[in-house]
Design a protein that fits this description.
By secondary structure, this protein is of the alpha/beta class. Helices cover 37% and strands 12% of the residues. It has a four-stranded mixed sheet with strand order 2-1-9-8. The protein has a three-stranded antiparallel sheet with strand order 5-6-7. A two-stranded parallel ribbon has the order 3-4. Helix 2 (48-63) crosses helix 10 (273-283), helix 2 crosses helix 11 (297-308) and helix 7 packs across helix 8 (218-230). Pfam families: tRNA-synt_1c. Keywords: Aminoacyl-tRNA synthetase, ATP-binding, Ligase, Nucleotide-binding, Protein biosynthesis.
């Protein structure tokens, strides 16, 4: 996805564009306000891959005079921890990033937490169930251990949905065989909204129309597009979603919070913000003669704009 000249991006339909081409196409739509978001999950400390994604989103949105928000994806309440939420704000401040909407402080995050929005998300799930676009699934993880795609055991059984005993799966296979053919969970067995339902709903609420995420989430984007269409979420259905190459672990493989890629807050790891800024400049293949002197996000933005519009 990447060559020596610039970062290459791929959408959920496998179209590939360079970052400068995407920038040009976005700026040509002068009547459109582009809105994006930083969406960290508080299930571990942010690693360098997260920071590259945040910087890329921030740089592109700021360069096209768009708006960017912060959304802390605490939908997995069993893994979310207060220290990780606090570290998110500290890391963004350390990096010098600002945002236009969403929580500005740890205290404000309590208002924005997904724990407050389980009722509307449950109502969406019930609507899909009533419309035959979702079904109850009582399969255990052990039963599905050897399957990479849900085999459809419960698809035609018409099981009664029993919260705490069964999950709800979106009938993606029936909705669109071409775009996505796996029936992912939208309401969890522990009676909480699934990640994808919550994410799509919040993006629709926030009128998000431009998302940059890692290449490992292409399948998620395909599923979310199909789900949004079934929910009549026109804003998200029309949103542009582009996927960038991943930052790999020094020992190989992708960086992952669940695998302990960052055991402490990154600002306490010995790295300086300047080092992260320059890592991003190299990742984006910026050719500004001042790249080795960049030290702040604002300076990186100037270099990014010089590179992207040349």
């Amino acid at each position: 996805m990447q060559d020596s000249a610039c970062l290459m991006l791929q959408d959920q339909d496998n179209e590939v564009k360079s970052l400068p081409v995407l920038y040009q196409q976005l700026t040509m739509q002068q009547d459109k306000m582009w809105r994006g978001r930083l969406a960290p999950t508080p299930s571990g400390y942010l690693h360098s891959g997260n920071l590259m994604n945040f910087l890329l989103n921030w740089l592109l949105l700021r360069s096209i005079n768009g708006e960017i928000g912060l959304r802390i994806d605490d939908m997995d309440l069993t893994r979310s921890r207060p220290q990780y939420v606090e570290a998110i704000f500290q890391t963004l401040d350390w990096l010098g990033l600002d945002w236009d909407f969403g929580p500005q402080t740890v205290a404000e995050q309590e208002t924005f937490s997904f724990v407050n929005f389980q009722l509307p998300l449950r109502q969406l799930s019930e609507r899909l169930l009533d419309n035959g676009q979702a079904y109850a699934c009582g399969c255990s993880r052990k039963e599905l251990l050897n399957y990479s795609v849900y085999p459809g055991f419960c698809r035609e059984r018409q099981n009664e949905w029993l919260p705490k005993k069964s999950a709800l799966r979106f009938a993606a296979k029936a909705e669109s065989n071409e775009q996505f053919a796996d029936d992912w969970v939208i309401w969890r067995r522990d009676d909480l909204a699934g990640y994808h339902l919550g994410s799509v709903w919040q993006d629709q609420q926030d009128q998000i129309n431009l998302i940059l995420r890692g290449a490992d989430l292409i399948e998620s984007s395909r599923f979310q597009k199909v789900l949004a269409k079934s929910l009549d979420f026109s804003e998200f259905t029309a949103a542009q979603i582009w996927h960038h190459p991943l930052i790999e672990h020094p020992q190989g493989g992708k960086l992952s919070k669940s695998a302990g890629a960052q055991a402490e807050p990154i600002f306490q790891s010995g790295l300086s913000a300047k080092m992260v800024i320059q890592q991003c400049a190299n990742w984006l293949s910026l050719t500004d003669s001042r790249v080795d002197k960049l030290g702040t996000a604002t300076e990186l933005l100037d270099s990014f704009c010089n590179h992207i519009i040349r």
